[in-house]
Amino acid sequence: MNFDLVVKNGVVYTEQGFYKLNVGVQGEKIAVLADPAVPLEGARVIDAQGKYVLPGFIDCHCHLRDPGLTQKEDFYTGTMAAAHSGITMVCPQPNVKPVPNTLADYREEVQAGQARAVIDFNPIGCPLGTAQDVTEIAQEGSAWFKLFEKVATYPYNTTAGTLDTHRIYEAFRAVAATGRYCSVHPFDKYFFDAAVEQIKAEGKPITLENVRHMWYSDEEMTGAAYQLSYYAKKAGMKWYAMHAWMPGYIDLVRMLKERGEMTIVSSFEYMPAMDASDEIYDIAGGKYIYLNHDAKPDKAKIWAAIRDGVIDMIGSDHAPHAPNEYKSDDALHTGAGFAMLDYFGHLLVSHVNEGDLSLEKLVEVTSVNFAKAFGMYPRKGSNVVGSDADFTIVDLNREWVISEQDKVYTKTQTIPYVGRKMHGAVTGTVVRGRVVMENGEVFGEPGYGKFVTAENSK
Ligand SMILES: [Zn+2]
Q1: Measured in angstroms, how far is the CA atom of residue 216 from the centroid of ligand 1?
Q2: Cα of 46 to ligand 1 centre, how many Å?
Q3: Less crowded by CB within 10 Å, the N or C end of the chain?
Q4: Domain range holding 151?
Q5: How far is the CA of 93 from the centre of ligand 1 (A)?
Q6: What's the CA-to-centroid distance between 61 and ligand 1, angstroms?
Q7: Residue 449 falls within a domain, yes or no?
Q8: 270 lies in a domain?
Q9: 122 lies in a domain?
């Protein structure tokens, strides 16, 4: 039999373990997994000798800025960058314009993806419309919902009103009726505002340097998260604990999981904190992020929580801004976050070799757990006959250093990790049978990416 694509000689991830297998793909699906002694003929053949063939990585948290904020990024450039990292599907977060609060606005974002994405996607809806809007967005296929606790408008505008308990609870009840999850960026806006007032009272300018250390303490984020877990419990809604990287927050979700109250947890969404040197936080003009200097993530604790299953998924929090949107002298109007996607997958692979997590665990937190949580398994997150032929091909032996000369596909053309020593790389990305990246070169076709719905997400 002649296949459309054959991936041969690789060590393939299966639910039973890693096995050397040849994979035959027909159209968009895996058609056969064969003993390597069985030669398979293919119109296109990838020799994965010495490499691992993993189910495609899925990024549960990124910001692609499309529609409406495409000076920062768009579905084409953002998904090209993702493909460079071995990512086969992305979940763009809802701080776009218009915010996907209604079915019409949600569809506008889906259409932007259908026009420009080179890999699969599922935009995350925002539950701040009416209960009817929330129901319609869920029925359309949004994997879950997200809001930001800080403010009532999203994309956030620090001068807008606070989302109070009543409004969050109302949104949670609407999401509960759909059976979907809702994630919330935990935050206590009171202390955010109070810090600004205090600096003003001292007669100082509201620069990042002046206020940053007063925002985002562990207790503030963890306390907000505990409240959210209570609102969710009371509303009968499944809470998706997002941004679980502060030490207290990790203790909290561990406790809630032990009580049987917790659902799913994701972390990182802050890879910079895991990989960048401290100087990155201090570089203005394009490379800083919001982070309280006095409350840095405890890297060892995060890795331990990933290894023991408290953290279910890892997201990139790719959050680029145009260079002129970084204003370190105006902390209330600056962009926060930076471009992560080009090297995210490579960094994760390097962490396997650095002993932070096993290859099997990497597959779970980047693919399997996501697909299971959001009703896409085994179509996604699985290497079995009949599932989508999404592969992330990994070379654990490649030693290299990220350099200025390396490829960058993100619109801002920035690499936060120049100089980072790498122990392993993603060498291939296959999306539904099509080779989208090979050896660092992305061959993306705008519009190839499909809107993958969360049919059975419960
Ligand atoms: Zn984010």
Answers
A1: 15
A2: 35
A3: N
A4: 57-373
A5: 7
A6: 6
A7: no
A8: yes
A9: yes
